[in-house]
Amino acid sequence: MFRLLARSIRLYLSMVAFSIRAQLEYRxxxxxxxxxxxxxxxxxxxxxxxxxxxxxxxxxxxxxxLLFLFALSVLSWGLCIIFFFHFRSLDQYILNxxxxxxxxxxxxxxxHFMASKFDxxxxxxxxxxxxxxxxxxxxxxxxxxxxxxLIFFAALLGGxxxxxxxxxxxxxxxxxxxxxxxxxxxxxxxxxxLLNYPLSIYPKGFQWFITFILPYAFIxxxxxxxxxxxxxxxxxxxxxxxxxxxxxxxxxxxxxxxLKGLNHYQSTGS
Amino acid sequence: xxxIEVKNLSKTYRIPKRQAGMVGALKSLIKREYTTKTAVAxxxxxxxAGEMVGYIGPNGAGxxxxxxxxxxxxVPTSGEVVVNGLIPYKERQKNARQIGVVFGxxxxxxxxxxxxxxxxxxxxxxxxxxxxxxENMETFNEILGLHExxxxxxxxxxxxxxxxxxxAAALLHDPQVLFLDEPxxxxxxxxxxxxxxxxxxxxxxxxxxxxxxxHDMADIEKLCKRMILIDxxxxxxxxxxSKIKERYGSQRIMVVELEGDTPLTLDKVTLLKEEGSRKWLxxxxxxxxxxxLITKLSGQYEIKDLTVKDQDIEVIIRHLYERNAKxxxxx
Lengths: 270, 331
Prior knowledge:
The structure holds two protein chains of two kinds. By secondary structure, chain A is mostly helical. Chain A is built from eleven helices and no strands. Chain A has one domain. Chain B is an alpha/beta fold. Chain B has eleven helices and 13 strands. In chain B, strand 6, helix 7 and strand 7 form a beta-alpha-beta unit. In chain B, helix 5 packs antiparallel against helix 6. The chains are: A mainly alpha, B alpha/beta. At the A-B interface, helix 1 of A face helix 2, helix 3, strand 5 and helix 4 of B.
């Protein structure tokens, strides 16, 4: 069991290394992809600043607190896409028949597919979010104990699992519908933008939905409540401690749906 | 027990009916109707270790679907498949170690990486011992000339090079069975010959069992003793290639070009095709010899040009496809 795991991880890492080298083949695109995303987020951060300049605070959140919220969401998303971003286009792999090859190799198809791509665009997300995080950390004069840091990393990991779970969920639909990428633009993309602001500005029903159904709130809002010592009119900050378990459960559900879909897989003709 | 056993194998696809227009699209969102298409219907055959079998049929006959069930990609709707004691779709990863697969239409290699990298990665994926890997690379290199393009990214390879690389990649881990789905598609004569030579060698020297689908009958003639022919998902013929030639060997095609646009009526001859003054005539050499036919023709018409096509397996196959008759021969 342990040997199998060790082998899988080793194999994963070398496949990832190959994937990075493949993307380095296109050096210009490689650099632009990273810079593009970093610039994109910086643009959003500036917009926020302009907004806050006239309003001072949104629902009691100052600019640096909002930036913290934003950085946390981008950071976990950045880590997530390293592993899972290409899942959104599983439908393309299925339609043009390239998915077949994941089924004729002595590796589990899920691991194989996961390892097949390592999105360097992630570095752009990480570049921005780490700088933004450091800035916010200093401006808010936070000085965390080890326990706080652990809570932070657990929340980060939970966020990766939640968003990874959603990407896997979306890709699983491709096994039945042979179309999945459109779901990404419907579910994931708007949600990512909504996460930039405190949950409390949204209608109650929606808050409830993204806390208990699609657990987006556990990615950044609830952990930020706890870590920044803020209060929400409806939700207790203690919920912020549960990101990791929520992420694990949610991810497991999505993964099992994916595996179920795999059995349903109908290859394309010829 | 045979190496490959296929028993009453069937595969039906459920295809959602797409309706035309916006209203139709909305309708099918709510309620989907399905049509079922039978790709493979009740096929049975066995293949012994070391055999080289041509699996042929027209487009959409169910060749690829069968191959995909044998390799574990697809789950059969009903029936049994056993490859070397394993049920492919149930034990995909185990099965993957004993088979090699080449899909001529798309590569299994890493598109953006130098060819050598793909081999190195496969070495890790299949846990091939370094010594064996080196030996195999040397042997394959000898016949396939891999060294010419080992450092070129796969996307820049010519079709022939890519196919050579793909076949080598499928054999690196010493599989017992090799599935080749249209390995010579789109290749020139030289490249085709090189690939055939390699396949023959692998089969003879290593005893690798080969199942090959193709549209090029020359592949079959040059490589396979046995041929399995399917059409519309049904088994049409399973037996020796030479037998089928004997049976239909007396059919000939004559292409004549006649002066003027004269209508043609001849006994014992069927007109296959007509393009202006060029006519394709099919006849049975046991009933009328080519010489007799020429005499007859020249008596009635002015012949400008004439060729007799020798018995071509391609013609026989076309004939079989057209007849669509059930011809299952007991081996």
